[in-house]
Amino acid sequence: MGASQTRSDNRYQDLMDKTGFSLEQIKNLHKRFLHLSGNEETISRENLESISALSNNPLRKQIIDAFFDKRNQRDDKAGFFHEIGFEQFLMVMSHFRPPNLKTTAEEKEAMRKEKLRFLFNMHDTDNDGIITLTEYRKVVEELLSKSGAIGLEAAKAIADAAMLEVASTNVPHMAPEDFYEGITFEHFEQILKGLEMESRMHIRFLDVDTTTMRCGKATM
C-alpha cells in the first residue's frame, strides 16, 4: 500500500511540475477525464465529439484535433495520436491555465507564447510551419458561414482580403507578382501583439472553467 501511494504521489508531483496545475486541480480534471472516457485509460475523438457544448462550435474539429496533436505536448513531435491518456489530456488543458498572483513577468510571457503556439497549431493543419491562405480561408469560412450570418463566397472574400492585409504588413516591399506563402509563427505573434492572451484564453467546452478553477472548487 505504501509503495503504491508513493508512486501515485510521485506521478502527481511530476504532473504538477509539467503543467502548473495544483494537486486538487489535477484530481478534479482526472475525474472529468474518467467521465469523458467512460472510466477507460484513454480518450478518443469520439469521446470528445459527444460533448454537447461543442456541437455548434464552428471550430469544433480544430478544437478536438488539438487534443490529439503531438505538437501540443511540448516535445516538438509532429503527427497525431489515435487516442490520448490522462497526462496528454492534462498537457493540452494546461495551455488554458491562467496566470496567478505569483506568476512572474517572465512566466507570463512564456505562457503567452505557449498559448499563441497552440492557436497557431490549430490553424497550421498540415504542420509545415506556415498558415497558408487555404488554411486561413477554411477557418474564416467555418467561423462566418456556419454562423448563418454570411455566405460562403463572402467568407472567402473576407479571408482573402485579410491575408492580403497580413502580407502587406509583414512583407511591405513584396512586388505584385510575388506570392505570399503564408503566416509564419513570427508573423502570427506580431498580428496578435496587442491582444492580452494570458488570462483571456480559457476553456469551458469540457465543463471545466480553468479561469475560476481553485483548489477543491473546480467546475466539473
From TrEMBL:
PROSITE patterns: EF_HAND_1 (PS00018), EF_HAND_2 (PS50222). Pfam families: EF-hand_6. It is found in: Cell projection, Lamellipodium; Cell projection, Ruffle membrane; Cytoplasm; Membrane. Gene3D superfamilies: EF-hand. Keywords: Calcium, Cell membrane, Cell projection, Cytoplasm, Differentiation, Lipoprotein, Membrane, Metal-binding, Myristate, Nucleus, Protein kinase inhibitor. The keyword NADP does not apply. InterPro entries: CHP3 (IPR052490), EF-hand-dom_pair (IPR011992), EF_Hand_1_Ca_BS (IPR018247), EF_hand_dom (IPR002048). Belongs to the calcineurin regulatory subunit family. CHP subfamily. The keyword Cell inner membrane does not apply. One of its GO terms (biological process) is cell differentiation. It is a lipid-anchor. GO terms for cellular component: cytoplasm; lamellipodium; nucleus; ruffle membrane. Its main location: other. This is Calcineurin B homologous protein 3. GO terms for molecular function: calcium ion binding; protein kinase inhibitor activity. Residues 111-146 form the EF-hand domain. It comes from Cynoglossus semilaevis (Tongue sole).
